[in-house]
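REVIEWER CHECKLIST
Item 1: Sequence provided? yes
Item 2: Single chain? yes
Item 3: Sequence as submitted:
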Amino acid sequence: MSFFALAAFVSVDASRSLVGSREAESSLTGIVLAAVSLAVMPFLSAAQRPAGRELGATSAVTDSKQTLLCTCLSAVLLAGLVANAVFGLPWADPTAALVIAGIAVKEGREAWRGDGCCAPAGLSTLEAGTDPAESADTCSCAPGCGCCN
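Item 4: Structure as written out by the authors:
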């Protein structure tokens, strides 16, 4: 539900900016935070995935994919903020916000339907007594799933 609430809030706020009831302001703090996120998140994601596989931690592998999505969102956010601050394009920031809202709706639908292929935390497709380190299914993926790749 949080994805849908986020999408609704961001969409309303961005729409208000686009129709002129209020203009998007430039934010140096927002630019710095988005730039730092864009610089750090890919490395964090790259470190989470192998660590999660080695530990057999589905949540860490899944979180690495979510962190990669956050990298993309940071790029969209940064583009909108910089276009507004540097080029004086007040529509760029709310337009970027609508892209983020669309991604939030997509993620919300996938979460609602349970489209993730990894087993929920604590569940595994491994047989009892099998050492996860000796199995190809070290992140508790369902058969045929490529979520650990």
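Item 5: Key structural point noted by reviewer: Residues 2-134 form one domain.
Item 6: Recommendation: ____
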